[in-house]
Specification:
The structure is a single chain. This protein is mainly α. The chain has a domain at 25-240. It contains 15 helices and two strands. It has helices at residues 2-24, 28-51, 61-77, 83-105, 110-130, 132-135, 158-180, 183-193, 195-200, 205-231, 241-254, 261-275, 284-297, 301-318, 329-336, and strands at residues 141-142, 233-234. A two-stranded antiparallel sheet has the order 1-2. α4 packs antiparallel against α10 (205-231) and α11 packs across α12 (261-275).
């Protein structure tokens, strides 16, 4: 009961802090920075469905992020479609792309799956980079419009875009939370723990893995579309492997297989990166060893380390020996929340 109360307090605190952030920090640049961090939270949360809860690491996630960004850009700039119609179509295009790729990719397992999706991601990058007639190639796509007005609500300012992205981030986290705590989410976790055992008890592993893959690409497409409308200029570099590395770093630092991990990882790394801007490309000399140390000592990231400490404290208080922290029911309940 106490854990539920604490969890509820944490959620309320995070939502209230997000709502009052523009009033506390009125600087437009910091608002823009936090808006992009929220966009990455959506993208990493989608990756977490597949990698964290189903156990399949897709290295094509940046490619689907780019598909979402370019779909919205092309539909609004070249086709001149209404923004919100284009936004909905973008989600459909990205999900359909995920379905087609997943049907083939999920016939492989473990490192073969990772290698295959890495190749798919690089192919997406090459298509965007070389197909100049459609995507503009290295010149990129400019003039992407801001989100269209909804009644009297306009989204042409930094403040309004901040709250719009915040809305989509909270909505995405709520949907993912409901999925994880549903029978479908527990099926994903069963596949992650032992796919062979899940098959033995009658779980359709291919169907559920494909569902997880499509959901992952759905949120990648959503984040890409929001990114395009906030930045208003996109180039092929958003599909490059360096973006995939950033997404993985956000997930691993925050905590893979947890709801709050993508939030912590994306926000912390985005702000730390901003403070290290003066190092430019040399900042990876700091992030590389840091990421290595986190993987070695805290393989489940910041949130995972907090969960472990909390589990130890609860077990010590109840005088219950911890046989395996990663599998204790208490930790699982905290993790899934």
């Amino acid at each position: 009961m106490t854990s539920i109360f604490n969890k509820r307090n944490s959620i309320i605190f995070f939502v209230l802090l997000s709502l009052i952030f523009p009033a506390v920090v009125p600087n437009d640049y910091f608002l823009y920075l936090m808006t992009t961090a929220f966009i990455w939270v959506i993208a990493v949360s989608g990756l977490n469905i597949l990698a964290g809860y189903t156990g399949y690491l897709s290295l094509a996630h940046a490619g689907f992020f780019a598909i979402g960004a370019y779909s919205l850009g092309l539909l609004t700039v070249k086709v001149e479609m209404n923004y919100w119609i284009a936004f909905v179509l973008t989600l459909g295009i990205t999900s359909l792309s995920g379905l087609l790729v997943g049907l083939i990719a999920l016939r492989t397992k473990e490192h073969f799956f990772a290698i295959y999706t890495l190749c798919v991601g690089y192919i997406i990058y090459l298509v965007i980079d070389k197909w100049e007639g459609l995507t503009g190639g290295v010149r990129g796509l400019i003039g992407i419009p801001t989100p269209a007005n909804i009644g009297s609500l306009a989204f042409d300012s930094v403040h309004s875009q901040y709250y719009l992205v915040l809305f989509f981030m909270l909505l995405s986290l709520l949907i993912i939370y409901r999925i994880v705590h549903s029978l479908t989410g527990r099926t994903f976790i069963a596949i992650r723990n032992s796919e062979q055992l899940a098959t033995t008890i009658g779980v359709s592993t291919m169907k559920n893995k494909l569902l997880a893959f499509v959901l992952s690409t759905f949120f990648a497409g959503m984040s890409g579309a929001l990114y395009a409308s906030v930045i208003r200029f996109i180039g092929p570099e958003i599909a490059y492997t360096s973006v995939m590395f950033d997404l993985l770093m956000y997930l691993l630092v925050g905590g893979i297989g947890t709801i709050s991990g993508p939030i912590v990882g994306a926000i912390v790394i985005v702000w730390v990166s901003q403070q290290l801007q003066f190092l430019q490309e040399y900042r990876m000399l700091i992030f590389g060893p840091l990421l290595t140390l986190i993987i070695i000592f805290y393989p489940r990231g910041i949130v995972g380390a907090f969960i472990s400490l909390k589990t130890r404290a609860q077990a010590k208080k109840r005088k219950v020996p911890i046989v395996n922290e990663s599998l204790t029911p208490t930790q699982k309940q905290i993790e899934e929340g």
